Amino acid sequence: MMNLRRTAAIVLRQYYLLRGSPTRILPLFVWVSVDIILWGFITRYLNSVASSGIDFVPALLGAVLLWDFFIRVMQGVTTAFFEDVWSRSLLNVFASPIQIPEYLGGLVISSVATSAAGLAVMQILASTIFGLSFFKYGAALMPFLLVLFLFGIALGVVGSAIVLRFGPSAEWLIWPIPALLSPFAAVFYPLSALPAWMQFVAKLLPPSYVFQGVRAIVAGHAANPAGLAAGTGLAAFYILLAGAFFTHIYRQAVRTGLIARYSAESPG
Question: Which terminus of the chain faces fewer neighbouring Cβ atoms within 10 Å, N or C?
Answer without folding.
Answer: N
